[in-house]
Amino acid sequence: MNNKAEDPAIWNDAMEAQKLMRERQLLEEGISSVRRIEKELEDNVEMIELGEEEGDDEIVAEAEANLKKLLADAERQQVEAMLSGEADSNDSYLEVHSGAGGTESQDWANMLLRMYTRWAERQGYKVEVMEVHDGEEAGIKSATILVKGHNAYGWLKTESGVHRLVRISPYDSNARRHTSFSSIWVYPVVDDSIEIDINESDCRIDTYRSSGAGGQHVNTTDSAVRITHIPTGIVVQCQQERSQHKNRAKAWDMLRARLYEAELQKREEAANQEAASKTDIGWGHQIRSYVLQPYQLVKDLRTGVESTSPSDVLDGDVSRFMEAALAHRIEGGAGAAVEDID
Prior knowledge:
The chain has 342 residues and is α+β, with helices and mostly antiparallel strands. It has nine helices and eleven strands.
């Protein structure tokens, strides 16, 4: 690969050259990570041996703690190596849609939006809010965020599906336990090198007033844009910019991404199985359950991975669930997916 990269003739095709350079950079980063892990492993093993010889329990304990951190790092690198899908390295859109249940589900949708935003920030990703539709009393009806960073789509792609919450409702004066559902839909940002042809006559474009925080401009002009692709029923919305023109351009990008993601799913047998089971947001179709009452437990129904600390998970600690779901998918398991709802 280095020989190809150093050949001046490669720049005759700028797009191919950029692709090769990205591949080389990824390989170099992977090799550097492996070498770093090997070096830290050797250093800490030597530190343990030295501590045991000198009877220094503090040094041994410190080195053992470092090894535990190193193991977690190595496991993450192993998962990163699995992200070799066509669009895994791309930025990603993530949509949240509340299910039936009014304020309860809308509040739950808002909690999920925060969870994924916190997760992305922990990974060093940049998050941009593309659109938010607020609930009548609390929470949100729907929202779309753009997660920007290497392998953003690869990490998030198994999160598509229905998420179920069980808790004592803060909106119920009788303090009864409620079950709420919301769905997540994840799709990759389309690379400029990928051509997605869309017939504009197949699309309906609507404009409306933005909702949510945003200063005086919000709710004063029809700057937000919604595009419906009639043949597939796919709907995308953007209200990020003050300019309707800019929102329209970004909405077209989002539609191209959704159509591309649909094509990717057709190529995967597991995704075909998911499509056959698509249904309403509700009982029996969730991929993960979050129970706050009468006990504390988050459980992924595809992999069996659990956490007894829902507060940590809802604060963005979801990488372990993603890692297990990715491994499950690569081994041939099929994750759940759902249609988004308006």
